[in-house]
Amino acid sequence: MLTGTNLEYTKSYNVRIVLETIRLYGPLSRVEIARRTYLTAQTVTNITRSLMQSGMIVEAERLQEGRGAPSILLKINPEGAYSIGLDLDKDHLTGVLVDLLGTPRQQIDMELKFPSSDEAMDILENTAKELITREGVELEKIWGVGIGLPGPFSVSDGAVLKDVVTPIGLPGWSNVPVREILSKRLSLPVFLENNANAAAIGELWYGAGRHIGTFFYVYFGAGLGGGVIINGQPYFGYTGNAGELGYYPASEPFDQEQNSQKPHLGQFFRLPSLYKKLQAEGYEVSNLVELEKLYEQKNDFLMGWIEKGATHLAPLVLAIEYLVDPQAIFFGGRLPDPIINDLLEKLKTILPTLRIKEKTSYPDLLNAAAGAEAAALGVATIPVYESMAPLPGLLMKTSKNSYRSLVRPVISEM
Amino acid sequence: MLTGTNLEYTKSYNVRIVLETIRLYGPLSRVEIARRTYLTAQTVTNITRSLMQSGMIVEAERLQEGRGAPSILLKINPEGAYSIGLDLDKDHLTGVLVDLLGTPRQQIDMELKFPSSDEAMDILENTAKELITREGVELEKIWGVGIGLPGPFSVSDGAVLKDVVTPIGLPGWSNVPVREILSKRLSLPVFLENNANAAAIGELWYGAGRHIGTFFYVYFGAGLGGGVIINGQPYFGYTGNAGELGYYPASEPFDQEQNSQKPHLGQFFRLPSLYKKLQAEGYEVSNLVELEKLYEQKNDFLMGWIEKGATHLAPLVLAIEYLVDPQAIFFGGRLPDPIINDLLEKLKTILPTLRIKEKTSYPDLLNAAAGAEAAALGVATIPVYESMAPLPGLLMKTSKNSYRSLVRPVISEM
DNA sequence: TTGATTAATTCAAATATTTTGATTAATTTA
DNA sequence: TAAATTAATCAAAATATTTGAATTAATCAA
Asked: Which one of B18, B37, B158 has the shortest CB-CB distance to A361?
């Protein structure tokens, strides 16, 4: 898979480069795009012409500054395409329909309790269809459906593309061909991703990651997950579980129920487990709104939980710092914003006590842009990312040009 | 830095793809190269013609199998180019001159004691010149000089390209323009790299990494370092210190002298510190040969040291497994081979006790191909890598096409 | 008001590289 | 010995970018 390239591939790549430049820095004039991409103005004219014909971009106002002909600004057409994201976890489903700029147009939330794979397929299908109906958009304009599932996955054959999944967090699921089932039922391209990676991709494409190329994303879902973005590209690891820090061993057990398993970090951040502990203390908390309310009351037990969480997270954050050396570490997902912020503050005081002082800069610890629906927005960006991002693999003559295809795939003897 | 591409870039990339295909799988016929790269036979003919003219490849024997015209096999010409690697550490210098196939032609070893930057510049210059004289090769055929220094580096301005360095491990060094000084004195391109990254690049280019795209390299030098290879590309991290696990905090202090610093893993694996401990126990050991001899005697104290080392390394190896998820973790550098092997065996028994059982495959723990001179061979490959590797950045219209340039560089507002 | 200047965009031709189709050469097979 | 097969190459076609000139639309200065 060490393949050459040609003009044809060059073109499709340049189209995406132009599109991405407009998306990130637009509205921009053709000449300005040429200046930034080092393409010629003529090439940009050619490319933008076809992009306008396909409705992906539109001309905006003229910009008059100084002498000469005023430039015509180009911008992404939000209605140029749509995408659907469905984030499924042990205890809930969030579905969103977004436009080309990532703006949510429709959203559906649902409480669940460990759905079986058959139940889940029906729920996912119906939610997608309901979103499309509500927005009243024709099927051709929808680029695809991204589906988020809780990682890690048990990958039986080492396949990088996870079409058939066995999510460890969803009991009873075993080698479910999610992609095949739903793409057939919905007549749309379907992409599967673990929700931590999805949240990271969302942050990369629409959030602060637009201007940060290398970051780690710590995702609070039903448990604890992680996603890695390296040089502007999602990084999945050899088995597809890179960044999965939920099962990192901990020194003490956190969860009485799950004492069959060795103690690990994900146990601590399991929301149902936190609710149960709070209920044992006499606080009636069973959802995020109530949790945030309790936090606003500066509840002692909750404060202690956050402090303890930061203490347990710190060594792993340090390992991320030393091993991955990212520009930033984002924290996001299904915890109330103020609680994440508090956790970050506490981490920021703990980390310096652990570090051996020698570097001049350390990764920023940041609260992720999208809130509780981060994963849903994240998976919704995958079809868009797949169609729009200037993936380096596009320049090579390989048949698979997925966002999951590697820059230089593992070399195999032929 | 989101740049387009064109035919010119396409060509230089295809040239490297052909070269790399021959290097990895050669000798190969033109048609076979075409089949593997998805280029046409005609294109391969054109490219190989110019590669033969520049002396990088040569025709080998004809291969007669079955009907049709026998194919003419092509292979890398070892004498097509040479490269020099100089690995400097706190206590030694290793210099090698290698040919295009990475075969060492000349080697120089030297014991040192914390050389000042001025002393080091002289030693490096003289060693390079001596290597060239001994081999008797003309300067034009030498693609460059790679210089390995102990990481981590203090990067004052966040520059990714480390032309001016302040290695923390070499006291007295401060913002030394190593690249400028030595490229002037030697009239050759000079590349700087920390020796763990260099060893990893060496393993990638000439070792087992030829067929493993994503791996971590744990490097035993004067202290403990690490290098990361992701999808066949060296990964450096945002500050250039990715994989630097030497300063990861440890639970107990290992080194009485350095008790001013907080305890960290690098202290444990410091060779001088081990020698001192052994001497305190009454064993006269002060170099690698004597250390290996002691190991062959199954010395109790040394065995205990290895066991303890494995115990302290295990949680970090697990973090690599969870965060980076590589196909393999290599262990190499300046520890005798049998000791590394022993350490690996012990790690392999400790790790399963730490893991929460849920994955079907784990990274292979492997002894690196090159021995004590891994870092020197590694830095020697950098000029070759820079000239030959099909770096994805080559396809983009950026001025800097170094092996350190990113696939999709950090996006900056213009 | 008008012509000169400036800058954005586009048309048309040139350029460079890959691809396509045909040709030549070398070997095996019947 | 002729047909079949495969490797390698020649020559022409195809395709995208680049180059250079032309067009368009604004400002500036007399």
From this structure: B158
Q: Which two tokens stand for residue A279?
A: 């209920």
Residue B155 has a pLDDT of: 53
Predicted confidence at residue A2, as pLDDT, reads: 64
Nearest to B275 by CA among B258, B256, B288: B288
Task: Give B69 CA → D3 C1' in Å.
Answer: 15
A39 vs B contacts (CB less than 8 Å):
3-4, 6, 397
Question: Do the chains contact at B324 and A232, CB–CB below 8 Å?
Answer: no
Residues A173 and A57 in one domain: no
A155-173, pLDDT tens digit by residue? 544 343 467 777 777 888 8
Q: In what order do the strands lie in the sheet with B328-333?
A: B233-235, B224-230, B215-220, B328-333, B364-367
Choose the closest CB to B360 out of A156, A213, A410: A156
Task: Calculate mean pLDDT across residues A231-254.
Answer: 84
CB-based contact, A69 to chain B, within 8 Å: no
Q: Looking at the complex, does the CB of residue B352 fall below 8 Å from at least one CB of chain A?
A: no
Q: Which residues contact B136 (CB under 8 A, 6 or more apart)?
A: none
Residue B219 lies in a domain: yes
Q: Is residue A278 assigned to a domain?
A: yes
Choice among A80-84, B240-244, B291-295 with the minimum mean pLDDT: B240-244
Do B16 and B157 lie in a common domain? no
- The mean per-residue pLDDT over the stretch B22-50 comes to 93
Q: What is the mean pLDDT of residues A3-17?
A: 82
Nearest residue in chain A measured CA to CA from B15: A4
Q: Which residues span the domain enclosing A122?
A: 80-199+379-395
Say which residue the tokens 């590209």 belong to. Answer: A233
* Partner residues linked to A28 by β-bridges: A74
Of A239, A318, A361, Cβ closest to residue B361: A239
pLDDT, tens digit (0-9, with 9 covering 90-100), for A276-285? 999 998 898 8
Residue A51 burial (C-beta neighbours within 10 Å; 0-12, 13-18, 19+): buried
Burial of B276 (0-12, 13-18, 19+ CB in 10 A): middle
**Residue B168 maps to which CATH number?**
3.30.420.40
Under 8 Å between Cβ of B127 and B110: yes
Q: Could you tell me if A362 and A243 lie in one domain?
A: yes
Of the residues A29, A54, A76, the one at which a domain ends:
A76
pLDDT tens per residue, range A32-73: 999 999 999 999 999 999 999 999 999 998 877 778 888 999
Indicate whether A89 pLDDT > 60.
Answer: yes
Asked whether residue B294 carries a pLDDT value surpassing 90, the answer given is yes
How many structural domains does chain A have?
3
- The pLDDT, as a whole number, for residue A8 is 79
Nucleotide with C1' nearest the B12 CA:
C17
B413 assigned to some structural domain:
no
Q: Residue A31 CA to D20 C1' — how many Å?
A: 17
Domain-terminating residue out of A76, A105, A136:
A76
As ranges, strand C nucleotides with an atom below 7 A of a protein CB are 5-12, 16-21, 25-29
% of chain A exceeding 70 in pLDDT: 90
Residue type, A97: L
> Does residue B180 belong to any structural domain of this protein?
yes
Q: How many angstroms is C1' of D9 away from CA of B34?
A: 14
DSSP bridge pairs for A397: none
**Same domain, yes or no: A326 and A177:** no
